[in-house]
Structures are given as C-alpha cells and as structure tokens.
Amino acid sequence: MTTLHCDTEAIGDHHLMNVREATHNDLPDILRLVHALAVYELEPDAVEATEDDFAAVMFPDDGRPNTYGLVAEVEGQIIGIAIWFHSFSTWTGKNGIWLEDLFVDPDHRGDGAGKALLGRLAQICQERGLTRLEWCVLKWNEPSIGFYRSLGAKAQDEWETFRLDGEALDSFAAESAEHESRG
C-alpha cells in the first residue's frame, strides 16, 4: 500500500492521501466516479456498466482478474480512480499498462490525486518489468493534456484510434462468419 502526504491547498489543511489497490467493497465508489467521468466527457448516458460487470473482470470467481483498479482516498473517501489492464507490444515483446480511465473528483483536482495514481501505475510498470504506460485523452480536454505533458508524457499524434462496437461490430462479425461458412 502506498500512502502519500498531500497538502490540500484549497482548504489549507494537511491530509494523508492513500493510493491503494481497489477492493470489491470499492465498486460503488468506482462506479460513481465512472458516472462522473461520463458527465465530464459530455456522455452522461453512456455508462451501461454495473457493479456486477466490474466485479466479473476485477474480482472474478477464478481469482484471475483481467482488469485492475487503483483508488485514491482522503479521510476514507474515495476521490479518484485508475482503471487499467495489461497491454502487449509486439515491438518490445513486453507487456505494458493500458489506462482505461483516470478520474479525480472535481472537488479534489489539484490536490495531487491524479499524479499519485499515475505515479503508482509507473511504479507498477517498473516493479513488473512493463515497458509502457499508455492512455487516450479527448482532444478537447486541454487541462488533462497539459497535466500529462507536465509529467513527461508524449502525445502519439501519428496514431488514430479506431473502434468497432454496437451494430457495426455485430454486422462485421456476422459478415465474417458468413464468409467463413462459404469458405
């Protein structure tokens, strides 16, 4: 467990910020912050995930999770999350971390929670021999882009993110299956 001392300038008090691995008991707060992230990203109705969905991938019955979480808490209140999973680079032959979501409650921004969460992920990379820590950010999210650049992160401007989901994914999968059956 990593405990960081955080000077909360907004109220002038000193608080202990704890960054730790998420537990099953944290799922309500994780989902609350995922919903807050969706609102921040102008997609308030986009979250379909439930606590059960998160439990299935983070705390499965077989004990082999494929998705992980970190939480930042101050005085027992979860104020930030980092949800991540392993990636793989065919160029390095090594795993990395793909950060799916990083979110800090707006009332606690500037208190160091985002930096602490990313710092813990960087430490995990070092401890486990992982070669990359990667994530996406919306192009209009200038505050976050500036924050990431201040940490030394570099934008991968030459890459374009693509996604197949919903009807497009279903249609393409059906088309591929039909092609294989004629094969």
UniProtKB/TrEMBL annotation:
N-acetyltransferase domain residues: 17-175
GO molecular function, one term: N-acetyltransferase activity
Keyword Chloroplast: no
Assigned keywords, A-Z: Acyltransferase, Transferase
Alphabetized PROSITE patterns for the sequence: GNAT
Domain of life: Bacteria
Signal peptide interval: none
Stored InterPro entries: Acyl_CoA_acyltransferase, Diverse_Substrate_AcTransf, GNAT_dom
Family to which this protein belongs: Belongs to the acetyltransferase family.
Protein's name according to its UniProt entry: L-amino acid N-acyltransferase YncA
